[in-house]
Design a protein that fits this description.
With 309 residues, the protein is an alpha+beta fold. It contains 12 helices and 10 strands.
Length: 309
């Protein structure tokens, strides 16, 4: 939730999108007018879904969350700082994927390159490819701590994206990047930061949040993957506020030992380390997954779709 001048920036970004060249009016593609009884059926279905959502586990978790309670009681505590909206220009949809003049990614890349102490990156789909590996390796070489929190194979809802990430793990670990993969069913009652989505079935990570030197924080729709970088049109807010930017690593960091698997490299073999019942446990295959899921993900990785991930 944000207040102040940045709200107008967000509104302007939406106006820019809805009035841009790539936008097509619904009446240009849908010419049928539904009958009144069809509309009534749709309204009834929406009402039924709404009623079910209110009593669902997800609905209750939202209604009774700390944030919702503070909002209703008019006692929100604000973090004050300078914010600005960063977006892909909607013309990106009409230009080549290699034309970065309309892209959001260079703005985030500049923040990463300016970091001198720490990059703490939370992204559900993390497919760095060679350029991303090089950027994070360069950060490590200048002494920056780099932490990446993403989904494990057990918690992800996109095996294709995970297959693109798999091939980069060893290079990142050799460079000194810290990799954490979310456990399935993690954080349901314990984490104060809702980095898992309660209604997703597997509690998959969905937040896209990056902390730069615990001073600046990006919150938005941008995943660290080729699809967000080259194909999608994304938006986010870049916030210059040390207390807020520090909150991500300070709150989430200590929970990672038990809520996620830390991926390590022993020789040329990956090992997943976590705490269970107060003791360290090591896994030597993708944890909490079947042989079939591991093989199918590997097979997806053989497909020529790297630019679509």
């Amino acid at each position: 939730m944000t207040i102040g001048p940045v709200v107008k920036e967000i509104s302007n970004a939406f106006d820019l999108y809805w009035n841009s060249r790539p936008v097509i009016a619904i009446t240009d593609v849908a010419h049928q007018r539904p009958a009144e009884q069809e509309l009534a059926a749709i309204r009834y279905g929406l009402s039924t879904e709404w009623s079910a959502a209110r009593v669902s586990a997800y609905g209750k978790s939202v209604r009774y969350s700390e944030f919702a309670q503070q909002l209703k009681a008019h006692r929100l505590s604000w973090f004050w700082g300078q914010s600005r909206v960063v977006t892909d220009n909607p013309e990106k949809a009409l230009t080549s994927a290699t034309d970065e003049s309309t892209h959001l990614a260079p703005k985030l890349r500049a923040e990463a390159n300016a970091a001198r102490k720490e990059l703490f990156l939370v992204s559900p789909y993390f497919v760095p490819r060679e350029a991303g590996v090089s950027l994070l390796t360069a950060a490590r070489q200048r002494g920056v701590r780099v932490v990446v929190v993403t989904n494990s194979l057990a918690s992800t809802d996109e095996k294709a994206a995970f297959s693109g990430y798999q091939t980069s793990r060893k290079a990142l670990l050799r460079a000194g990047v810290e990799l954490y993969e979310l456990k399935p069913k993690a954080g349901e009652e314990r984490l104060r930061i809702r980095w898992a989505s309660p209604g997703s079935g597997g509690a998959g990570l969905h937040a896209k949040t990056f902390s730069f030197d615990r001073r600046k924080l990006f919150v938005g729709s941008f995943n660290l993957d080729p699809r967000s970088r080259d194909l999608n049109t994304e938006i986010g807010v870049l916030i210059d506020c040390a207390p807020l930017a520090s909150r991500l690593p300070e709150k989430l960091g200590p929970a990672l030992a038990s809520e996620a698997y830390r991926v390590e490299l022993k020789g040329n073999r990956l090992v997943w380390v976590t705490q269970e019942d107060g003791r360290d446990v090591r896994y030597y295959n993708e944890p909490a997954t079947s042989f079939g899921r591991r093989v199918s993900t590997w097979l997806v990785g053989l497909l020529p779709i790297k630019g679509e991930l």
